[in-house]
Design a protein that fits this description.
- It is a single chain.
- This protein is mainly α.
- It is about 60% helix and about 0% strand.
- It is built from nine helices and no strands.
- The radius of gyration is 18 Å and the shape is globular.
């Protein structure tokens, strides 16, 4: 490898996705955002085209604000995607466990809820599965509230299906 290629590889190895997003955002908008702004957004709402890189960065970031972003990804965003709606078995599980689902849950959140209920990693015990389902529903409501209170959510969370296909892998 030549000196130029080695220097470029070293630059890539030091790349910070959140800084890259900040720079890209600053060039496309009149206002620039700090990494903490992206953490705030992605801790409440998985904005497509923005949060995928933020989630990747947060998985290795040891700072306290990254914890909320990781929790959002692990409890909500990673389950979004796919087109599956709630099945009769899903509805039966919810009924048996007395889990109430909002009447106006979006199709994307229905798909995510189906994915949580059917995640084999959560089948180790009934309590962890029930907790994950309730956590997902709480985060779905939080995302709706965040957007409803002016959180700059110009596209629906369900449109972020790329996040569910491996944002933090």
């Amino acid at each position: 490898m030549g000196l130029v290629a080695e220097a470029h590889a070293a630059d890539l190895a030091k790349a910070d996705p959140v800084s890259d997003l900040t720079a890209a955002s600053a060039s496309s908008q009149s206002e620039s955002k700090s990494p903490q702004d992206f953490y705030l957004l992605c801790a409440f709402y998985p904005k497509p085209g923005t949060c995928e890189e933020v989630y990747r960065h947060a998985m290795t970031d040891k700072d306290i604000p990254a914890e909320a972003v990781r929790a959002e990804y692990n409890g909500y965003a990673r389950y979004l995607g796919g087109g599956q709606s709630l099945t009769d078995a899903d509805r039966q599980y919810l009924k048996e466990n007395q889990i109430r689902v909002p009447d106006d849950i979006s199709p994307a959140d229905q798909s995510g809820l189906h994915n949580v209920i059917n995640d084999p990693a959560l089948w180790r015990d009934a309590d962890s599965r029930r907790a994950a389902v309730n956590n997902f529903l709480n985060r779905a409501v939080e995302a709706e509230l965040y957007c409803g209170l002016g959180g700059n959510c110009d596209t629906g969370a369900g449109e972020g299906s790329a996040m569910a296909s491996g944002a933090a892998k």
